[in-house]
Amino acid sequence: MTKTIITVATMKGGSGKSTLASCLAVHWHLKARQPIIIDADPQRSIARLSARERKLGGVRVIEDAGGESWKTAYQVAEQSGLVIIDTPGFRSEATLACIAASDFVLVPVKPSPFDIDRMLDTLNLLINGAKGGRRPEFRCLLTQTTREAVIAKHIRAELAEAGFPVLKSEMANRVIYAEAALWGATPTLIEPRGPAARDIAAIADEIESVLEGALETKRVASA
Ligand SMILES: Nc1ncnc2c1ncn2[C@@H]1O[C@H](COP(=O)(O)OP(=O)(O)OP(=O)(O)O)[C@@H](O)[C@H]1O
Ligand SMILES: [Mg+2]
Question: What CATH number is given to the structural domain containing 199?
Fold first, then answer.
């Protein structure tokens, strides 16, 4: 992967942003990619996670919840190549700026039957409201799904119909995420061959192929 900034964002609290950002970072870290996380959430979820015993396996975390965290991301990407930004669960100019500065935006969506319309509205704000009018490469990801859940299938279809592409992989609902977090770890560190680690690997692979596809499109366009 070349110099890449990935932002994890939604405007809905508790949809799994911080969990996802930390799990992806650990996965890529173990693949010798040296990712750096920018914790742009004033709640400091990832900073606190990395202060616990397992220290996210040594992934470097930089705290910057200021309005210019996107600039920090740019600078850090120059050094490490791969930056993952965890954003707060509310709408902020700082998040929109991070989105505009990103190569890829990952939007975790926790399937819920109650607020599909609101979810589509906020996705519109997030993706189409990025600064500079640039629509970033983005994918939604269904999180905390349970097997054969009708609601997840329904939401997948609604998202696709509204023009929001969804990754094939899902981040299933598994208790190991919270358990691992108690130690400042992720499933990839404590159970590398387990189902949660495999979910994360599948999500990471899909993101990599979207990024490679986007690079190829750029290459063809500039040739
Ligand atoms: N796939 C999953 N299966 C089970 N629990 C999960 C999963 N993903 C996240 N969780 C749990 O859900 C809770 C919220 O997750 P997390 O803190 O990552 O969400 P968030 O979007 O970052 O929230 P906030 O908006 O407050 O920053 C945590 O307790 C986490 O352990
Ligand atoms: Mg969070």
Answer: 3.40.50.300
Q: Give the span between the Cα atoms of 103 and 149, in whole angstroms.
A: 31
Question: Is the Cβ atom of 181 under 6 angstroms away from ligand 1?
Answer: yes
User: Does residue 144's CB lie within 6 angstroms of at least one atom of ligand 1?
Assistant: yes
pTM of the model: 0.95
pLDDT tens for residues 16-60?
Answer: 999 999 999 999 999 989 999 999 999 999 999 999 999 999 999
Residue 11's domain comprises: 4-222
Q: Does 12 sit in the ligand 1 pocket, CB within 6 Å?
A: no
Yes or no: say if 160 and 123 are a contact pair by the CB < 8 Å rule: no
Atom of ligand 1 nearest to the CA of 15: 21
Cβ neighbours for 151, distance < 8 A, ≥ 6 positions apart = 111, 112, 113
Closest ligand 1 atom to 22 CA:
18
> Looking at the 3D structure of the chain, how many domains does it have?
1
Q: What is the pLDDT of residues 138-184, one digit of tens each?
A: 999 999 999 777 888 889 999 999 889 999 999 999 999 999 999 99
